[in-house]
Amino acid sequence: MTRAFSFTVFVVTAIGCDPPNNPDPYDLDFNIPRTESFTESLLDYGIYTEPIAALQPAEGVIPYELSSQLFTDYASKQRLMKIPEGRLIASTDATSLEFPEGSILAKTFYYPSDMGDTDSPNRVIETRLLVKTEGLWNVATYLWNDDQTDATL
Questions:
Q1: Which residues fall within 8 angstroms of residue 2, CB to CB, at 6 or more apart?
Q2: Rounded to an integer, what distance in angstroms lies between the CA atom of residue 76 and that of residue 97?
Q3: I want to staple 151 with a disulfide (CB 3.0 to 4.6 A). Which of 3, 42, 120, 126 is the partner?
């Protein structure tokens, strides 16, 4: 009985986790509708000024913080929003916000290169983007290169 149950769970798990004929290289686990074709380079979004490893937001990019942050293995996080010029975030009620088309939310994870020296340069690990296109939020993760000059899908 136990062997049959284990085999059934394995087969169902193996078959259920394999997305059938999914052509989207960015969506390997779930069938998530996408309305944004992400570029290969984070530089294309104009979130940071050069050198981007300094994590200095570009003009018009607004830093924000959450009132309750999650622990992420001692990583520091920078959160930014970029709202299209001339557009505003609307408040639909006391607890909801409606971002305009083309809005970008970014979250970047980084560590000091020397954990014993908080003034040491940052070692940037990844940046996650949420881009609102055609009414949907699209998600992509960019991994930073060793030279800290760019991040790519």
A1: none
A2: 25
A3: 42
Per-residue pLDDT band for 16 (boundaries 50, 70, 90) equals very low
Q: Which two tokens stand for residue 46?
A: 């104009």
Angle, CA 112 vertex, CA 70 and CA 152 arms, to 5°: 75
pLDDT in tens, 4-14: 433 333 333 33
- Give residue 150's pLDDT: 95
DSSP string of 107-131, one letter each residue: EEEEEESSTT-TTSPEEEEEEEEEE
* C-alpha span between 135 and 77 (Å, rounded): 27
Q: Cβ(99)–Cβ(132) under 8 Å?
A: yes
Distance of CA 97 to the CA centre of its chain: 19
pLDDT tens-digit readout, 24-56 = 555 555 566 678 889 999 999 999 999 999 999
